[in-house]
Amino acid sequence: MDIEQIRSDFPILSTTVYGKPLIYLDNGATTQKPKCVVEEIENIYYTTNANVHRGVHYLSQQATDLAEEARVVVQQFINAGHSKEVIFTRGTTESINLVAHSFCQQFCSQGDEIIISAMEHHANIVSWQLQESIRGIKLKIIPINEKGELILDEFKKLISPRTRLVSVTHVSNVLGTINPVEEIIGIAHSHDIPVLIDAAQSVQHIGIDVQKLDCDFLVFSGHKIYGPNGVGVLYGKEKWLNLMPPYQGGGEMIKTVSFKGTTFNELPFKFEAGTPDYPAVIALATAINYIKKIGLDSIKAYEDELLRYCTDELLKIDGIRIFGTSDNKSSVISFLVGNIHHYDMGMLLDKMGIAVRTGHHCAQPLMEELGIEGTVRASLAFYNTKKEIDQLIAGIKRVASMFG
Ligand code: PMP
After folding, report:
1. Per the confidence metrics, is the pTM higher than 0.85?
2. Is residue 106 located within the same domain as residue 18?
3. Total of domains in the chain
4. Which domain holds residue 13?
5. CA–centroid distance, residue 257 to ligand 1 (Å)
6. CA within 13 Å, CB half, 40
7. What is the tens place of the pLDDT at every residue in 300-320?
8. What contacts 142, CB < 8 A, 6 or more positions away?
9. How far is the centre of ligand 1, averaged over its atoms, from the C-alpha of 314 (Å)?
10. For 182-232, how does the pLDDT look when each residue is reduced to its tens digit (9 = 90+)?
11. Is 174 within 8 Å of 332 (Cβ atoms)?
């Protein structure tokens, strides 16, 4: 990989903050966008702006064709069996809420159980808690060990005749742990239980083949995979999506509407109510094509190298504690240094031009489990460099020396 060439595709990486070169290490929160993605959005608005699926006129048909081509790009990227299994949403959060609402409406009644894990993002907790209050379902939680890995023996014990679905993250946005999702899916399927995989933190780092994984649902966000904000994906097996009722009403999700009753459109449109952010959909495909050109295998190999380097260097710092020490990790590192508050560390690093995330990372139950309020999190992308990591380490040491 030609990192300098890649970095030149991301203009923001050569900007400065407080007069210092920007070192962007908050890629778990959102990734920066290559020029081709931003230019695609501009291009669409300047040349092809019209509502999709609505008009007989040229522009509308052009826009519709591009949006449907984008669906095929996503389908091929995750190797879905059919493009109608790819639903465009506003992001991971909306995708999980969609499944929680529609799946539970169809398949869950009072006392039924959904299994999630102790390392979930709030999106994969609260969506189900809403169903707890609406339908009286119960949540069961897979615990983690001291390395921040799911305890699969405990998972097996949680499965009961009332279990209706398992919903787990592929990669933890705090610990970086890559969960053994193939094994989890295998175990769940041996009890005929479907599985949702939250791929918000994995799809940009690890090649995903939904048919090989055999997951029933998989969700991710455009903005974490170098694409635009406000667009995301729900992959669902056709058999489930066909059985599930719509999530929202209006727009392209109908077949016929009368005051006596309404019939619904086929997949994928049944789940796409209202005018979609189709320029974002099209630019998501541009982002995916950009990543494919670099190659996810090369991206993973390089990010693994950065992760190893960053971890080794961090471990040399006095008083460092790293949260998430699994052997199978993605490029997310959460840490604390001595008694320095994560917020102080983040604020002072920021003044040196270094952007990291601080706080609970939308995973408060995990923080409770770890017995802390929050961490500092550096999350690395393929445009980061060892030199930037050196600057992070030097910055942390400077903060540590200020605090004595
Ligand atoms: N799940 C995980 C694992 C995440 O890291 C995030 C974003 N931090 C989300 C879900 C929510 O994604 P979004 O805000 O894009 O909907």
Report:
1. yes
2. no
3. 2
4. 3-30+295-402
5. 35
6. 25
7. 999 999 999 999 999 999 999
8. 115, 116, 117, 118, 150, 151, 152, 154, 155, 158, 168
9. 26
10. 999 999 999 999 999 999 999 999 999 999 999 999 999 999 999 999 999
11. yes
